[in-house]
Amino acid sequence: MKHKNISLFLIVCFLSSVGILVGSVLGHSVGGNGLFMGAMVGGSLGVLASTWLAIRLNLIERASYGAVAGSSLVGFMLASMLTMTNLHTPIIPLVSIALIGLGAIAGNTYIRKITVTKSLVIPAIIGLVLSAPALFFIVASLLKFNFGIGQPFMLFESMISTPERFQLFNNISPIIFVGGLVVGVIVNLYPQVEMQLRLDQGKLVATITAEAKPMNLAIVILSCLLLAMLFGYVAVENLPHF
Fold first, then answer.
1. Are both 235 and 128 inside the same structural domain?
2. How far does CA 192 lie from the centroid of its chain?
3. In a shared domain, residues 28 and 120
4. Can you give 107-155 as a three-state secondary structure string?
5. SS3 (DSSP) at 148
6. Does residue 12 register a pLDDT over 90?
7. Number of structural domains, the chain?
8. 197-207 per-position pLDDT tens digit
């Protein structure tokens, strides 16, 4: 098993690196923030391809594809954030590639053993998709205004390049960011909370039962943290006006 995990680690790291390199080159030829987007797309495709290859080489079971690919993508996201905040040195971006391989090993060793029903997976996926725009906006803003890395934020700059677009962005963004996060919280609270109503001696009695589901609870916590950060951002922006 250890030898298979080592081989899995090397394959995922290598193909992900190739995907990042090829995606960066192709994205750079497009211009704008194409380098960043190309690296993200290329790296993600590299993760998916390496996981498929691992199945063909009998390094992982076919049923483990989702767990290995998903945890590898999480490792890739962490590696991307670490790389973008340490572009001044080539060592950290190179070492951060190891997070992708470690994510694959974690998925193959631990996450694949977790049995999750579809009724829990679907709300988690919906919540993750709905929280993605706010998460990207916050990460891009932090990188630009705290670390001077403006490539990820260029996507939003193109949306507010004219007064008309800026007004449209201000009108739509609360619905997408705040609305998406609120819906994600509600959707993922539903599988964890059960409420029963009954009549007891002429009185209406409500019984609420809560059972934490790790996957859905994680989405709820993430969405609430993002909501707090967004409201904090709005408060700081409008504080000088009071």
1. yes
2. 22
3. no
4. HHHCHHHCCCCHHHHHHHHHHHHHHHHHHHHHHHHHHHHHHCCCCCCHH
5. coil
6. yes
7. 2
8. 777 777 777 77
pLDDT digits (tens, 9 = 90+) for 22-47: 888 887 776 655 677 778 888 889 99
Comparing CA positions, the residue from 3, 103, 4 lying closest to residue 44 is: 103
Length of the chain: 242
In this predicted structure, what is the pLDDT of residue 241?
A: 53
Q: Are 39 and 22 in contact (CB under 8 A)?
A: no
Of the pLDDT bands very low, low, confident and very high (cuts 50, 70, 90), residue 115 is low
Give CA–CA dist 209/190, Å, rounded. 11
Instruction: Choose the final residue of a domain: 114, 141, 159.
Output: 114
Per-chain mean pLDDT for the chain: 80
The domain in which residue 98 lies consists of 2-114
Neighbours of 140 (CB within 10 A): 22
**229 and 201 part of one domain:** yes
Whether residue 171 contacts residue 164, with contact meaning beta carbons closer than 8 Å, is answered with: no
Regarding beta strands 193-200 and 203-210, do their DSSP bridges make them parallel or antiparallel, or are they unpaired?
antiparallel
User: Once rounded to an integer, what is the mean pLDDT over residues 79-90?
Assistant: 72
In this structure, what DSSP letter does residue 239 have? Answer: G
Same domain assignment for residues 120 and 225: yes
